[in-house]
Design brief:
The structure is a single chain. It contains 25 helices and 20 strands. The chain is of the alpha+beta class. A hairpin with a 2-residue loop joins strand 2 and strand 3. Helix 11 runs parallel beside helix 14.
Length: 793
């Protein structure tokens, strides 16, 4: 392959590229946004309209139905749901997931604008709310204090402004605070006595609380902007407002309030008919916090004595993130704002529902799992390949993961638990290509070829095979990218991550590893080359820098890494290496000889009996022909719109009914024959069938015990159903022990026995899976660590 040839020719460049990939991958992982669950855009909109004093029936005909008529014409709408109450209408518009949120939002707003002309004039403007997962708060800051709630609300509002200045924060909602308002409480009797109307009071206040622009005045070369400031600076100013003044001619007539009362003779002020109070709005929200445990100086939670537990009124600030922002960075910046904010003495701050804590714990656990899994993969490789080749192959895992993180950063992805879980799944797959490359290069090196010539020949020999094997893996995960629905969007990160890291591992195996193996491959008969001081210093510096980077990002990961490396070294010296020598020196050759004998036995053919071909191939041929006929009939029925043929409860297309019926008959005969041949093979197995069935029964029983210890509800029916297959094999094999003649019953070909037994085991598994009462769950049942209770009255 040309790419391998070029990589070996430019091996110095490949070393530089390897270093760049490591550094860039580490930097990408540190800086890439991290979140708990994938951020998914759901094109769903809620249109709410308020029309005070209207019953549900009129509300539906006057508001809901006109809006629905306009919304139904929008392209891409999957469904529209509406709910109408007294004075309130709510319409939910859900789009197909293929429609982008921006496009869907624009279409909804355009249709709502068109529908406004059909709505009653005194109905309020429809409010369009776009549903987003990011609308859920990522953190709540609860403020409690010894001073008044009004002052605490002012502190919360100042803190709100400071928090909303953080780049990743979209908005902050203040809950439980007191909002100031100026209340003009009118005395109805006084108002009637002065013959003043409500509208006169409102007009007097509105006309005086104004700032009026006065234009520009040019003086020499300067231009001054003029304005008349008339806004109220203090509530007392409202008391001195004049509501009514007598005409210039004297005390005769007034404007008359239209109430038929006496006309006032002098000036009427607001204080004459109303009390002006600088008070608070009616509260719409309350926030309370009851703490049962608090953190000590070490960050550990300690319980509060029961007699000291009390409910505290607080002001809560719910922080919402911008889409795609890094929650961990937002948390750090929020803590920095809280640390620098000048809270008055006696203010208590309690953080609740902090999503960053969950994300840190989740990422830390998954990071440790990835590192532990990677080292155990290397430990297994050491057992089979030896320490040098295992370490060389094991570096493929971090290299592929670093390259994958670099690609994810370029694609604009965020790290979440689905991506990290996918990396755990990929650990074993990432070393496959490198194992083949390194072992083949090692084989050519043993044949006497020079290092880089062995690398060239070994990599070229298996390059296309690796390309084909990786393509098959990618092809297996590729359809999952087109998984429809919201769950498909959620789970698409799994195949996407696997495809990225698998292609990265192929790139590393075909481009990076031929050059690296050429540098580092060494036979056991070769003398170890002494490293120069520069090389030793470079390696030590690289280890120190890597440890520092990991420790700064997550010190727990560094500690776990060090402990696992120590465990790896000790385990290798005391356990793995001695066992590996025994395995490769004695057990592996014996296993290979036994496997050769097994293959020779399985490939034995006996066609000397009568009608040997039909006896061995009839069931498999009938099964294959039936499957193909059903496939052909199904494809033809998609293109033929013919009348249907009813056969009992089933309906078949009339044109393809003969093909489908023949296929069903042939498939049924094949399945029946395969089951008979499977029982025959178990019967002929005799003691081997008894031992094999007993081993499988023990494995199944231990598996059931494991589920039982984890709390699974296992009844007698489940246990009997699971153990039925191996126990049946033991029973049939036991009957075979009493067989006197060793001549074939039906099958005379061992290969036919193997194929029929494989299909028979598959059918048995399908039957047991459908019979066993395990049930199905979308998500496993787990104990929640948080409960939200919503009560509507």
């Amino acid at each position: 392959m040309k790419v391998i040839e070029q990589a070996i020719k430019n091996r110095t460049l490949i070393l530089v590229v390897t270093g760049i990939l490591i550094v860039a991958g580490l930097y990408s992982y540190i800086t890439i946004p991290k979140e708990s669950a994938p951020s998914i855009d759901i094109p769903l909109f809620i249109i709410t309209t308020i029309y005070p004093g209207i019953g549900p029936a009129d509300m539906e005909s006057l508001v809901t139905q006109p809006l629905e008529r306009e919304l139904q014409g929008i392209e891409g709408v999957s469904q529209i749901r509406s709910t109408t109450f007294e004075s309130f209408s709510s319409i939910v518009v859900e789009f197909d997931l293929a429609v982008e949120n921006i496009v869907a939002s624009q279409r909804v707003r355009e249709q709502i604008d068109l529908a406004r002309s059909e709505l009653p004039s005194d109905a309020e403007e429809p409010i369009i709310t776009e549903f987003s997962i990011d609308d859920f708060p990522i953190m709540s800051i609860n403020l409690a204090a010894d001073y008044s709630m009004a002052q605490l609300t002012q502190i919360a509002e100042r803190l709100e402004d400071a928090l909303e200045a953080i780049p990743g924060v979209r908005e902050v909602d203040v809950i439980g605070g007191l909002e100031r308002e100026v209340q003009v409480n009118v005395d109805l009797n006084a108002m009637k006595g002065y013959n003043i109307s409500f509208q006169q009071i409102i007009g007097a206040i509105q006309s005086q609380n104004l700032t009026i622009p006065g234009g520009n005045v040019d003086v020499d070369r300067l231009s001054y902007l003029l304005r008349i400031t008339g806004e109220f600076q203090h509530p007392n100013e409202i008391e001195d407002l004049v509501i009514f003044a007598p005409p210039a001619g004297g005390g005769g007539g007034g404007s008359g309030g239209g109430n038929g009362g006496p006309t006032p003779l002098g000036l009427v002020y607001v204080r004459d008919v109303a009390d002006v109070i600088y008070g608070f709005k009616d509260r719409e929200s309350y926030a309370r916090l009851t703490a049962y445990r608090i953190e000590d100086n070490n960050g550990d939670l300690i319980p509060i004595p029961v007699e000291e537990v009390r409910e505290n009124p607080v002001v809560s600030l719910d922080i919402k993130q911008r889409s795609g922002s890094n929650i961990l960075e937002i948390s750090e910046e929020v803590n920095a704002v809280l640390a620098d904010f000048g809270f008055p003495a006696g203010t208590q701050i309690v953080l609740t529902n902090d999503a960053s804590d969950d994300i840190r714990n989740l990422i830390t656990d998954l990071e440790n799992s990835i590192i532990s899994g990677m080292l155990f993969v290397v430990l297994v490789l050491v057992f089979f390949l030896g320490i040098r080749n295992a370490l060389l192959v094991g570096t493929a895992v971090p290299l592929a993961i670093f390259t994958g993180f670099l690609v994810m950063t370029i694609m604009g992805l965020t790290i979440n638990f689905v991506i990290l879980f996918s990396l755990i799944i990929a650990l074993g797959l990432l070393v496959d290509n490198s194992v083949v490359i390194v072992e083949n290069i090692y084989r050519f090196r043993e044949q006497g070829y020079e290092r880089f010539e062995a690398a060239r020949l070994g990599a070229n020999e298996v390059g296309y095979a690796l390309l084909a094997s990786t393509a098959t893996l990618v092809a297996a995960f590729l359809p999952l990218l087109f998984w429809p629905g919201i769950i498909g969007k959620f789970m698409s990160y799994l195949p996407m991550t696997l495809i990225i890291v698998l292609l990265s591992s192929l790139f590393i195996a075909l481009v990076i590893y031929p050059a690296l193996t050429g540098f580092f491959v060494r036979l056991s008969t070769e003398k170890k080359r002494e490293k120069s001081r520069l090389m030793k210093g470079t390696i030590l510096a690289a280890v120190i820098i890597a440890a520092a980077v990991i420790g700064i990002n997550n010190y727990i990961t560094l500690v776990v890494l060090v402990l696992i490396v120590l465990f790896f070294v000790i385990t290798y010296r005391l356990i793995v290496k001695p066992l590996s020598l025994i395995f490769t020196g004695k057990l592996l050759p014996e296993f290979i000889e036994g496997y050769k004998s097994f293959l020779g036995w399985m490939l034995q053919r006996n066609y000397k009996v009568r009608r040997a071909y039909w006896r061995n191939m009839f069931s498999l041929s009938a099964f294959t022909i039936g499957f193909l006929l059903l496939l052909i009939g199904g494809v033809l029925s998609l293109f033929l719109s013919e009348p249907v043929l009813r056969i009992g409860p089933a309906t078949l297309p009339a044109a393809t009914a003969p093909i489908l019926l023949l296929g069903l008959f042939s498939l049924g005969v094949g399945i029946l024959g395969i089951i008979v041949h499977t029982i025959e093979s178990v019967f002929l197995g005799g003691m081997r069938s008894v031992i094999g069935g007993a081993v499988v029964a023990v494995v199944f029983l231990l598996t059931l015990l494991g589920f039982w210890f984890r709390g699974a509800n296992l009844d007698a029916q489940i246990i009997i159903t699971v153990l039925s297959i191996p126990l049946f094999a033991v029973a049939v094999g036991s009957l075979g022990l009493f067989r006197k003649h060793r001549s074939p019953i039906i099958l005379s070909d061992n290969r036919a026995r193997l194929l029929n037994s494989i299909f028979g085991a598959l059918f048995a598994i399908v039957i047991v899976f459908n019979v066993i009462p395990t049930g199905l769950n979308f998500f496993p049942d787990t104990d929640p660590n948080r409960i939200d209770i919503n009560i509507e009255g």
